[in-house]
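re: ur question from yesterday

yeah so i grabbed the chain u mentioned. its 534 aa long if i counted rite. heres the sequnce exactly as i have it in my notes:
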Amino acid sequence: MTKIHSTDATPEYRWQENIENKFNSSKWNSNLLQRFTVTITLLTLTVGCIPTQQFQSKISPSLEKNHISINNCDLTSTKENNPQISLVSQNSNSTQCASIDPFSQAVRFATKAANLAQSARTKQQWDKVAQEWVQAVAWMQAVPPENPRRAFAEKKVTEYMRNLAYSQQQAASAPSEFNPVSFNSDILDTQLELYLSYVATVGAPDVLIVGSSRALYGVAPQQLQEYLIAKGYPRLNIFNFGINGATAQVVDFQLRQLLSYDQLPKLIIWADGVRAFNSGRVDRTYNSIFASEGKRLLLSGIRPQLPKAKSNLASTCYQFPKPLNVFSPTPNFPWEISVGETIEINYSAIKPTNYTKYSYKPLWQTSSNSTPYSQYSTQPVQTVAIANAADAIDANGFLSVDEQFNPSYYYRRKPYVAGLYDGDYAGFYLGGTQATALNSVVNFTKSRSIPLVFVNLPLSDSYLDSVRWSAEEEFHGWMQRRAQEHGFKFLNFNLYQPQLAKNKYFFDPSHLNRYGAGAVARYLAASAGISWPR
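ran it thru and got these structure tokens back, copy pasting raw so excuse formatting
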């Protein structure tokens, strides 16, 4: 893993020399920069504190040359011989106020971030690096317009944001000190950790969405929540626990074995299609899970769990400067915020395939013609690509994709595979192990009094050739009979909602994009006979 290097250079002029080349090859786009800018702006409005033990020296005399008073708190020294700084709240009557230079504060946090990155390996260590970059951005942003360092500070904010993004990407992909045992599926491992954290935060969801990648991409929890609110239902907690490659056997394992009784929801929406019930094909996902260490421990009675925190409070808090200005005109953010509304982010930069890994040029590979002050040169703001799908999953387990399916363009990149040669339809048979798994799920949910709704998700018109269409018709009759026999609800959005088959609702022939996921959420909320929790 490429690291951020530091030298013995003085903090004010040489501190960035070994950092900036780290990010020369990364790419930024405007949406991501805007999202980070909002994050920092919100953070800078927060009044916190720096525990006195965190400061081991007075403000350096060198900082006194450029006094800037931060007016959202008073910084006072308790005693002349006390090397610590105490922070007094905004409403304090204290008349003593020490000026502080935000530029030098930013340098201090940036240097600390670079030093911590030298040895960062785990998720928790990279989180700490990211925290320091947040501080550095906030303080650099506080340099006022009338200060001669302002123009330089503006460029530094952009560079710090790039460093922050890199640190966050490393934190997302690094192993956790408390990482649960793997089930041989990156998406399952990611979704399980997120679900356990979700339950620890808000409790078991009212509605749980399960299924394969078609569910992961195809049902938007937040939009479903909003549509139900519009129909008079309370604000329901909805989580999407979709897993790539999940079959009926995987869902059966997920509900009956993986989750404990207190982690089960009040309602289950199983969103998928005929491919998940074809017992004639090899169930690679289930076989991989079955052979995993996580499955072995589960059979021995050891259930995956997150660490038990001693406290929900962080041991350290920070003092952010009051922002004096923003460095650029108000951007056209892809969301609107008002009282009582949810912030919705446009993930137009997220692509489901062809993810680009980060690429950085180490300092020793830079040009020998670099000037002593080349660390001050600012690289163009470029796009930072999502490294993998797991990083793009939101807090409700949903993976949103903005791209729209264009058959003429898509099939120039990838060959068209007819249903006759599609491995998902090989040896097509709706009995066997997958049918047994369906019966197991139905009986389990009935024994727990959890309503079950199965949704046959739509497929694009170009995907439904004669072989696949025949399978869909057979599946409809087969599933309808079981729904009537066992008392669960079956909704066929593929055969009986043709308006959902439009290409604009897909990002590939069989997976919905965020527009399709929103449309499915709307149709679900409007469907009669679903026992939504009250």
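noticed a couple things. The mean pLDDT is 75. also Residues 11-175+352-385 form one domain.
anyway ttyl
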